[in-house]
């Protein structure tokens, strides 16, 4: 790991502060908190099943990863319940878990020394649909005034800031990759001197409005068997399934964490984002460039990476492009590759954030979680997919990938 340490020293000499993850909180279809989620992941328990939040009978896709039922008033103050969409409630719950996990006394810190950055790809669609139904059925007088912000992409940043009484630098990122982008943005704030940033991403679109929007893209799997519907890198790949949830983090400057005796999960050592070239240009997609730039930012060579958490689209063309990018950087079967999102579905912006949480837990516990249900991997001579069972091994460096419509992000996490 000499290159990594050298890069860290160089960053310190330039006055750039290191950002470490000291707390994480998750909400996922296969586990309501980080403990439940990690246990499910290690045992290959998926949370994908027939949709229950609305009747899916009229739609070609009837499977999704829903967060288990919970009593919202046990987790969210009653006054917030009528103001918030499912995505915001889950974000508040996950952020509460991250703060508790970090054992950080936010009340004892100046509020302007704590920032908040979140990602969100779809906004509060469930809340929006409900209020729009009132508009058409009953008239404008019956529409909640809270609709003015409950649908908005920035709502989670605002609600988290209010809930925890912090008012440092903030931000919101949007799009499929924004789960990584928000964490990367938090790292930038820490590099510039902010001691603590609360960050991450949670998304939810478990309503007819969300489904018809996604169905229009034509990439969702219509397979009825929940164990055969979402199969990234498999010869039977037929598309993806949606899920809801994500992860939130407490990110601190390394010295701040050390001074209070915190035990970090790892360092956010590198991050990069790229755009794909114009369709039809014949140029290579931008994912490989994002990987190489993130590794360079971290001062890590390909041979030092212990695992890649793949974007895993479940669409044959996109899977081939991702496999090609990974192989070009690392070589054939040179690094373990996994896609735990086969247990949850794709969570929009919440997906890459949840992958960062999973990678952090992998580093702490020395185990790579499996990709489930994939039985016939395409070009198995190209990717070393971790299939079926977890793989126990030292995980010192993890790479997390995410792709959206024309965008690619990559993040390197290293053990500390």
Automatic annotation (TrEMBL):
Gene3D superfamilies to which the protein is assigned, alphabetical: 3.40.47.10
Domain named Ketosynthase family 3 (KS3): residues: 16-416
Question: Has UniProt tagged this entry with the keyword Transferase?
Answer: yes
Q: What InterPro entries does the annotation carry?
A: Beta-ketoacyl_synthase, Ketoacyl_synth_C, Ketoacyl_synth_N, PKS_Beta-ketoAc_synthase_dom, Thiolase-like
Gene Ontology biological process terms in this record? fatty acid biosynthetic process
Instruction: Give one GO molecular function term.
Output: 3-oxoacyl-[acyl-carrier-protein] synthase activity
Which residues, if any, are the signal sequence?
Answer: none
Question: Which keywords label this protein?
Answer: Acyltransferase, Transferase
Q: Belongs to which family?
A: Belongs to the thiolase-like superfamily. Beta-ketoacyl-ACP synthases family.
What is the name of this protein? Ketosynthase chain-length factor
Q: Which organism is it from?
A: Actinomadura litoris
């Amino acid at each position: 790991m000499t290159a990594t340490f050298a890069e860290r020293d160089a960053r310190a000499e330039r006055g750039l502060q290191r950002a470490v993850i000291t707390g994480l909180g998750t909400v996922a279809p296969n586990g309501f908190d980080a403990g439940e989620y990690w246990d499910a992941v290690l045992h290959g328990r998926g949370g994908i099943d027939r949709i229950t939040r609305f009747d899916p009978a009229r739609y070609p896709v009837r499977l999704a990863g829903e967060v288990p039922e919970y009593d919202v008033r046990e987790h969210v103050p009653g006054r917030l319940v009528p103001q918030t969409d499912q995505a915001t409630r889950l974000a508040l719950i996950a952020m509460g878990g991250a703060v508790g996990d970090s054992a950080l006394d936010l009340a004892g810190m100046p509020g302007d020394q704590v920032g908040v950055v979140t990602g969100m790809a779809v906004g509060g669609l469930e809340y929006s649909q409900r209020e729009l139904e009132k508009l058409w059925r009953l008239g404008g007088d019956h529409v909640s005034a809270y609709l003015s912000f409950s649908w908005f992409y920035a709502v989670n940043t605002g609600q988290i800031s209010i809930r925890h009484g912090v008012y440092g630098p903030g931000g919101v990122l949007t799009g499929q990759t924004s789960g990584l982008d928000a964490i990367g943005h938090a790292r930038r704030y820490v590099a510039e001197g902010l001691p603590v940033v609360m960050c991450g991403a949670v998304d939810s679109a478990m309503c007819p409005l969300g489904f018809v929007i996604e169905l229009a893209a034509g990439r969702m799997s219509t397979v009825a068997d929940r164990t055969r519907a979402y199969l990234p890198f498999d010869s039977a790949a037929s598309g993806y399934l949606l899920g809801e949830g994500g992860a939130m983090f407490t990110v601190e400057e390394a010295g701040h964490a050390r001074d209070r005796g915190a035990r970090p999960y790892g360092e956010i050592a590198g991050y990069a984002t790229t755009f794909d070239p114009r369709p039809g240009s014949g140029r290579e997609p931008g994912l490989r460039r994002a990987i190489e730039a993130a590794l360079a930012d971290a001062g890590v060579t390909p041979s030092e990476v212990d695992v890649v958490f793949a974007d895993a689209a479940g669409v044959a063309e996109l899977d081939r492009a991702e496999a090609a990018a990974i192989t070009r950087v690392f070589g054939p079967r040179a690094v373990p590759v996994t896609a735990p999102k086969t247990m949850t579905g794709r969570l929009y912006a919440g997906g890459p954030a949840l992958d960062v949480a999973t990678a952090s837990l992998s580093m702490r516990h020395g185990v790579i979680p499996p990709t489930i249900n994939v039985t016939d991997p395409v070009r198995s001579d190209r990717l070393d997919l971790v299939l079926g069972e977890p793989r126990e091994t030292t995980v010192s460096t993890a790479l997390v990938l995410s792709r959206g419509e024309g965008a690619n992000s990559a993040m390197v996490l290293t053990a500390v």
